[in-house]
Amino acid sequence: MARTELLDSMSPYQSGSNMAHAVDLNGQEFEKAAYKFGAGTPNVADAIGMAAAVDYLESLGREAIRAHEEHITSYGLEQLANIPRLRVLGPRQSKDRIPVFAFDIAGIAAGTLLHDLDDAGIAIRAGDLSALPLLKHFGVSEAARASCYLYTTQADIDEFIKALRQSIAKRS
């Protein structure tokens, strides 16, 4: 057991989880006393899983992966460009990005989109996306994000776009 004043005088050796708040490019605000040392438990299982994932990816071939990512990114950007009031955050050219689409729709909160798409069986992320300084750069404090991967198909993108259009129609 340590005295609160000693703990408060010490800097944490790592940050993360719920011990850091108000994060921006110039720093963060830490919890008080012992709570500022609760950055989380190291995850050993993920290192083992990552080794297996690398083996799998190598078996597919880097060129095949690159070609699929380029194709699904181009297709996703084309479809998103046709959604009224939707703004893709970041580069608009597939060559300049990976198949992850952060976006906002004027007049609809990111959390509302998340719930509407979840109801349609589409999983996205929404909120500050652990990237508040970057979101602020784009003039927003929250966004929605759809992430694609090797298994994402054009049909998956089409279902995502359909659900987005339904959410917008419901909120208009």
**SSE string:** HEEHHEEHEHEH
Average pLDDT, rounded to a whole number, is 91
Which strand order do you get reading across the main beta sheet? Answer: 3-4-6-5
Main β sheet profile:
4 strands, antiparallel
Alpha carbon gap, first and last residue: 57 Å
Low-confidence stretches: none
The multimeric state of the shown protein is single chain
- Cα-based radius of gyration, to the nearest Å: 20 Å
Describe the structure.
The protein is α+β, with helices and mostly antiparallel strands. It has six helices and six strands. Strands 3-4-6-5 form a four-stranded antiparallel β-sheet, with helices on one face. Strands 1-2 form a two-stranded antiparallel ribbon. Strand 1 (20-24) and strand 2 form a beta hairpin. Helix 3 runs parallel beside helix 6 and helix 4 (110-119) crosses helix 6 (154-171).
List keywords for this structure.
two-stranded antiparallel sheet, 6 strands, 15% strand, 172 residues, four-stranded antiparallel sheet, alpha+beta
Secondary structure: elements and pairs:
Blueprint: H1 4-9, E1 20-24, E2 27-30, H2 44-60, H3 62-80, E3 86-88, E4 100-105, H4 110-119, E5 125-127, H5 132-137, E6 143-147, H6 154-171
